[in-house]
Automatic annotation (TrEMBL):
Recorded superkingdom: Bacteria
Domain Beta-lactamase-related: 71-333
Source organism per UniProt: Pedobacter helvus
PROSITE patterns: PROKAR_LIPOPROTEIN
Name of the protein in its database record: Serine hydrolase domain-containing protein
Its EC number(s): 3.-.-.-
Length: 356
């Protein structure tokens, strides 16, 4: 009798698993999947399996082509449901993340803190040295590492070159939210704290751990990561799993949860360099206007996102166990943007037609 029960359970377990291309069992469609480090190995799942409206997929693709996109990738439970490349782009082509790469910097900062190399509540000068800005010393000393993570340093955000002469005082740290490139000083904080270059520390702690490709381009105006679409998706998958990759917690969940929560009371739609949907109001780069309502009304309210200039996007939606990647040129070349744009809401209308 015991043998019968054992073999019945074993048969049930095997029958509930799908098969990989090589015939070996894989996790069922509703369990989380992490791709191997071999970029060519990534499980897929058909949209029809999820009950999606396949008749709306072509309209989504047509919209993306019209909006100058280079790639779209949608994961559910880590598996690829849609992977499309446009306008000569391929799975092996690298493209710039622009400000979506800020989330890579935030993650690396959290790892450095969990390793005891820094404390985000300490003043930035502890790692950057005194007079790293052109602010009065008393005002400079108000700036913590956390202020760099939350866009609340109080510097003049109209000057994009991150050089000392441009880092001038507008308001006390913590009293004004303004989107600017001063966040790039976090790479110097991490380099100082770890006694390594930022890129080598990032490669060791993030890139190599989750099998990303790509490289950093460090400049006076922008610090930009470049990678393939699949590597962007790998980071999005880690973000969906609150900093965990397969069985390893890359960044502790407590810090990651802080990153995707309102980080200050000025712009509730901003965490630690992550954009947050579902809040009562939001601000955008280059303005001090407070807009009422959700950041992206058509998107799920629990979505958090990495948003970069010219509409580079990582959308993470925990309620749907979904990650969506969009890379490309600006959707509206006549009105390029630094982060959130009207394109997001238009794109989500098309996505909703497919997934709902």
């Amino acid at each position: 009798m015991r043998s019968f029960i054992f073999f019945a359970l074993l048969s049930l377990s095997v029958s509930s698993c799908s098969k990989k291309d090589d015939g070996t069992p894989s996790a069922s469609s509703d369990s989380m999947y992490f791709p191997s480090h071999a970029n060519s190995t990534w499980e897929t799942i058909a949209p029809s399996t999820l009950g999606w409206n396949q008749n709306a997929i072509q309209a989504l693709k047509d919209f993306l082509i019209q909006k100058n996109s280079k790639s779209l990738m949608i994961l559910v439970n880590g598996k690829i449901v849609i992977e499309e490349y446009f306008n000569g782009h391929t799975a092996n082509t690298s493209w710039e993340w622009n400000s979506a790469g800020k989330t890579l910097v935030a993650t690396t900062t959290g790892i450095a803190q969990q390793e005891g190399l820094l404390n985000i509540n300490n003043k930035a000068a502890d790692y950057l040295g005194t007079q790293w800005t052109s602010m009065p010393l008393a005002k400079e000393n108000l700036i913590s590492v956390k202020h760099l993570l939350t866009m609340t340093t109080g510097n003049d955000d109209t000057k994009q070159y991150v050089v000392k002469s441009n880092l001038t005082y507008v308001a006390d740290a913590g009293t004004r939210w303004a989107y600017s490139n001063i966040f790039q000083k976090l790479t110097d904080v991490i380099a100082s704290a770890s006694n390594k270059t930022f890129e080598s520390y990032f490669n060791e702690k993030v890139k190599n751990k989750i099998g990303m490709d790509g490289f950093w381009n460090f400049g006076a105006i922008f610090t930009i990561y470049h990678s393939t679409t699949r590597s962007m998706a790998r980071f999005g998958l880690m973000a969906l799993n609150k900093g965990k990759w397969n069985n390893e917690q890359i960044i502790n969940e407590a810090f990651f949860n802080e990153s995707i929560s309102t980080s200050q009371n000025i712009n509730p739609s901003y965490g630690y360099l992550w954009w947050l949907n579902g809040k009562t109001n939001f601000m955008i780069p280059g303005e001090q206007t407070i807009y009422q309502g959700y950041l992206v009304p058509n998107a799920p309210i629990d979505m958090y996102a990495a948003m970069g200039a010219n509409d580079q996007r990582i959308y993470v939606i925990p309620s749907k166990k979904m990650v969506i990647i969009r890379m490309g040129n600006a959707a509206n070349p006549a009105n390029p943007n630094f982060a959130v744009s009207g394109f997001d809401n238009e794109l989500w209308a098309k996505i909703n037609a497919v997934i709902n």
